Amino acid sequence: MKSIAVVNYAEEKGSVALRELDRPRIRTDEVLLEVANVGVCGSDLHQWTADHSWPVNYPVVLGHEFGGHIVELGTNVDGWKEGDRVVSETAAVIDATNPLSRQGLYNLDPTRKGFGYGVNGAMTRFVRVPARCLHRVPDQLPFEQACLTEPCAVAYNAVLVNSTIRPGDRVLVLGPGTIGILCAAMATLAGAEVAIVGLENDRSRLEIAKGYGCETIIGDVTEWAMRYDGMGVDCVIDAAGVSATLRSALDYVRPNGHITKVGWGPQPMNYSLDPLIQKNVTLQGSFSHNWPIWEKVLALLSTGKLDVKPIIGGVWSLGDWHEAFEQMHSGKVVKSVLTPK
Question: Do 142 and 42 lie in a common domain?
Answer without folding.
Answer: yes
